[in-house]
Amino acid sequence: MSRFGISWQAGLALVLCAMAAVALPLAADAAFSAGTTVLIFALIVLCALASMTVASTAFAAAILFVGAHGAAWLLVSGIAGHEGSARASFFLLVAAAWLLAWRCVTELVTIRPKNRTADTMLRLIVPTIFGVWLLLLWEALVRGFGIPFVLLPPPSTIAVRIANSLPVLAADVNQTIFKAVLVGYVLGCGTGFAAAIAADRFIFLRRGLLPVGNMAAALPIIGVAPIMVMWFGFDWQSKAAVVVIMTFFPMLVNTVVGLTASGHMERDLMRTYASGYWQTLFKLRLPAAMPFIFNALKINSTLALIGAIVAEFFGTPVVGMGFRISTEVGRMNIDMVWAEIAVAAVAGSVFYGAVALVERAVTFWHPSIRGG
Amino acid sequence: MDRLRDKIIPVTTLLALLVVAWYAFAVVLNGPFQRDLDRRAGETPSYTEFLVKTWSQPKPTLPAPHQVAQNFFKTTFQVKPWSARSLVYHSWVTLSATMVGFLFGTVLGIVIAVGIVHFVALDRSLMPWIITSQTIPILALAPMVIVVFAAIGITGLFPKALISTYLSFFPVAVGMVKGLRSPEVMHLDLMHTYNASAAQTFWKLRVPASIPYLFASMKVAVAASLVGAIVAELPTGAIAGIGAKLLSGSYYSQTIEIWAALVAGSLVAVLLVALVGVAGRITERAMGGREA
Fold it and tell me: Which of B131, B132, B232, B247 gets the most CB atoms within 10 Å of its CB?
C-alpha cells in the first residue's frame, strides 16, 4: 500500500507555517524566545513532512501526535503570562498544529487493529484528542486574544480553581447530589415504577395515565421548582421534591411500554405453566422490560441533576451547586462557576456511567449488549 | 367509539380525579393558615364556609384550580396583550427566544449530523462527546451565559436563544445521525447499481429516509428549547418571560401567578410539540408516505 502523497491537512499546515514565518514575531512582547520559536516551527514542519513520507500509518500518526501536541503545548505555555500580546503568526501556528492533530485523527481512524484491547484504546484515544484540542484551542484563544478572565477564564485557571476550592466543592456536591439528587431520584423512580405496575394491573388506569405521561415529557416541569421551595423550605427536601416530579413521568411511561415488550408466545408459555399474574410479571415481563426501565433510569440521571441545580436558583441554605453557581455569577467569579460546572459534568457522567454499568450486568442477555 | 372508550373517557376521568384531589389538597395545605386567621378574627366558621375560604385565599399555599383559571383568564384575555401584566406578552417573549434557539439548534444539529455521517474522523471524535454531553447538566451553564453576555453588552433575546440552541441541537444531531444511517444495505446497493454519486445517494435516499427521525427528534428538541428559554430567564432578574414571571412570583409569594405562568408555559409547550407534529405529518404526506 502506498501512502506517499500530500495530505491536504499537512500541506495546509506547511502553508500556514510559511505565512506565520512572514508575519513574525509571534507576540508583541517577549513571550517567546528565539529558541522556542524555532523549535515550534521545526516541530510542525518536520512532523508534517515526516507524516507524508513515513510508510506505516501508525508511525505517521505517532509522529503527528507528538508534533501537534508538542507545538501546541509550547505555544500555549509560552503565551501564558503575556495575555493579549499574540499576533497573527501565533494564531496561524495554532491553526497549523490543529491541522496536524486532525491529520493524526484521520490516520488513526484508518487503523484497523486486530486485537480488541488495541481497538478499545483507539476508540478512547480519538475522542480524547478531540477533547484535549477543545481545551487547547480555548486556552490559546482566550490567552492569545487577551479576553478578560472575568468573562471567559481559560481551562488552566479553572483547574487551579478546582484544586484550590476542593472543600467548598465537596460540600456543594454533598448537599446537592448526595442529599437532593439521590433521595429524589430513588423516590421518583420508585413511585414511577409503582405507578407503572398499577397502570399495568388496571387497564383503565393505563389508558388514562399514558397520554398524560407522554404529554408531561414535553412540559417544562422544572417550573414547579418555586412552588416546591415554598412548600418544603429552602433545604434539600424541596430540591428532592422537584427531582421526584421530574423523574416520575419518564419512569412511568418507559416501564408501561417495557411491560408490553415480552412476546405473545412467551406469555402463552407462562399461561401453559399456569403461572399467575405476579409470577408472569417477575419471571417474564419485568426482565423483558429491563432495557426500557434502564433507559428511563439513564434519562432520569440527567434530569435529576438538572432539577436539583435549577431548583437551587430559587433559594437554598448557603451551600449547594446551584446556589454556588448563581451567587458566584452575581459576584463575577466566573472561574468558580466553571469549576462548579466541571464538577457537575463529572458527577453527571459518573452517575450515568454507574447506571449504564448496572444495566450491562442486569440486561446481559440483550442483543445490544451481547453483540457488542 | 373505540377512541372514546380507549382514550377520552379514561383520560378525562383521570383528570377529573386530579382536580378533585387538587381541591382536597388545597384544603389540607391552606387549612392551617385559614384556621389561624379565623382564630385571630375570633370567628368560628361553619365547615362549608371554611372550605370556601381555603379556596379563595389571596396568597394560598396551594391555589385552587378555579383561582388559577381565573387569574390565567384575566391575565390572558382581559388585559392588553402587550402590557407587562399580560401572560400573552410574557409567553411571547419566551416563545420568540425558544423559536430562534430551536431553529438555530435544528440547523446546527442537521449540519453536525451530516458531517458525522460523511467523515469518519468526525464520527469517531465527536460522537462520544455528543453522547457524554447528554449526561451532564448543561442547564447549569445558563446563568453564566446570560451574565457574561450581559457584561459585554448583549442582553435580551440572543443569549436566551443561545441556551435554547444548545439544548436543542443534541437531540436533533443524534436523531439525524440515526436517520441518515437508517437506509438498509439493500437500498444503498441499489443506489450503487444506478451508479449514483454520493450527493445523489444523499439527497434521494438518505435525506428522505431521515425525515421521520428528524421530526421525532425535533419534538424532543422543541420541548428542551422551551425549558432552556425559561431557565435562561431565571438568573438575571429578567423582567419579561415566563421564567421571570416564575421568579417574581416566588419572590413575592404570589402563588396564583406562579401557577398561571406554569399553565401558560405548559400550553406553549403543548402547542409547540403539536405544531412540530403537524408539520411532520404534512411533510410525510407530501412525500407520499401512508399512515401505517
Answer: B232
